[in-house]
Design goal:
The chain is of the alpha+beta class and 86 residues long. The chain has 3 helices and 7 strands, in the order H-E-E-E-E-E-E-H-H-E. The protein has a 3-stranded antiparallel sheet with strand order 6-1-7. It has a two-stranded antiparallel sheet with strand order 2-3. Strand 2 (30-36) and strand 3 (39-45) form a beta hairpin.
Length: 86
């Protein structure tokens, strides 16, 4: 019984792991290349909208600690282009 529960957790992801959402303000969709050593990680921000009443930023949500660290150490994050949503 315990083995089955561990397999489900591994397939779905750890439910206690922190979820982080990042936003790019002023855009409805955006794709950014985040440097990761000699490679680049392509991150797709989506779900934003613009209207006469205001704007909703394009967002990207992740549970991966590695992706969180890459985003938060990226030049785009340090320059304020990508922001962490609370």
């Amino acid at each position: 019984m315990n083995m089955n529960k561990n397999m489900q957790t591994a397939a779905i992801g750890d439910p206690h792991r922190m979820v982080s959402t990042y936003a790019v303000h002023g855009l409805t969709e955006c794709e950014m290349l985040i440097p990761a050593g000699n490679a680049r990680l392509r991150i797709h921000f989506s779900g934003g909208s613009l209207s006469a009443l205001g704007s909703v930023p394009a967002t990207y949500t992740t549970r991966s600690r590695i992706v969180m660290r890459l985003i938060e150490n990226s030049p785009q994050f340090r320059q304020g282009r990508i922001r962490k949503m609370l």
